[in-house]
Every structure is written in C-alpha cells, then in structure tokens.
Amino acid sequence: MTKLAAAHGLDSLIAPVRPTWKERYPLTPIERYVEWRREDGYLYDPWLRTHERLGAEVLAIAPESMVVTGTRDEWEEWTGLQFPEPGDYVVPGALAPVRFEDGTGTYVEPNVWMRHPVEF
C-alpha cells in the first residue's frame, strides 16, 4: 500500500487498524488500551505493534469505525447468548460491550487510525 501511495506522490498512508487483542479487554476504553506498551517499548497489541514496527504511528481513535444494530432476537441468533434485560453485555470477539435498550442491541466498534510514512 505504501508503494501505491508513493506512486501517487503521497507522503503518507493512513489506515484504520483493528486491534486484535482488544477483544480480550472489552471493558477497557480504547483510548487507554492504545497507550499500553510492552517492556520493550512497543505497543501491547500485536496488530498495532506490527504497524508500529513498519514505521507507523498512532494518529487518533476511530470511535465508531463500525456500528451494528439488531433486535434482541437477531443478537441472540448471531451470538448464541441471551440478553434478558436492558444494559451492556460482553460478547465474545467484540472490542466493546453491546448495549441493549428498548429491545435493540447496538455494538459500536472502535479502531485506531495509524499513519505510515511513505518514502520515495
């Protein structure tokens, strides 16, 4: 992708990155999660770290990268879980809780904008 960006005369490539281990910490706000670092100084999340090692930097949070809304019945079919009352629920594989209100579940997935420098 950076070669394509360079071919078009761009000096950087900005990509939305889905942090792969965020699903392990769905209750931790993405703003805090993205700041976690390992002892070696690199980002904690392996996919964010891969981009960092390629020279990318974290630019910003994409707080609503994807929004999925469905009825309670749809969410129960999709997940195999039950959602008996309004509130927030942790769903396997989700980066944030699913919120249920008035029989509707809404999942708002955050991602991270990362900037890769482009060399000519």
Annotate the secondary structure layout.
Elements: H1 2-7, E1 12-17, H2 30-33, H3 46-53, E2 57-71, H4 72-79, E3 87-89, E4 98-101, E5 104-117
Antiparallel strand pairs: 1-5, 2-5, 3-4, 4-5
Which structural category do the helix and sheet elements fall into? alpha+beta
Order of helices and strands: HEHHEHEEE
End-to-end C-alpha gap:
13 Å
Q: Output the number of helix runs.
A: 4
- Contiguous runs where pLDDT drops below 50 for at least 5 residues: none
Q: What general outline do the C-alpha atoms trace?
A: elongated
Please provide the count of β strands: 5
Average pLDDT score: 95
Radius of gyration: 17 Å
Q: Strand-residue fraction?
A: 35-45%
| Largest sheet composition | 5 strands, antiparallel
Estimated helix fraction: 10-25%
* Structural domain count: 1
What does this structure look like?
It is a single chain. The protein has one domain. Helices cover 22% and strands 35% of the residues. It is built from four helices and five strands. It has helices at residues 2-7, 30-33, 46-53, 72-79, and strands spanning 12-17, 57-71, 87-89, 98-101, 104-117. Strands 1, 2, 3, 4 and 5 form a five-stranded antiparallel β-sheet that branches. The chain starts with a helix and ends with a strand. The mean pLDDT is 95.
What descriptive keywords fit this protein?
five-stranded antiparallel beta sheet, 5 strands
Briefly summarize what is shown.
The chain is 22% helix and 35% strand.
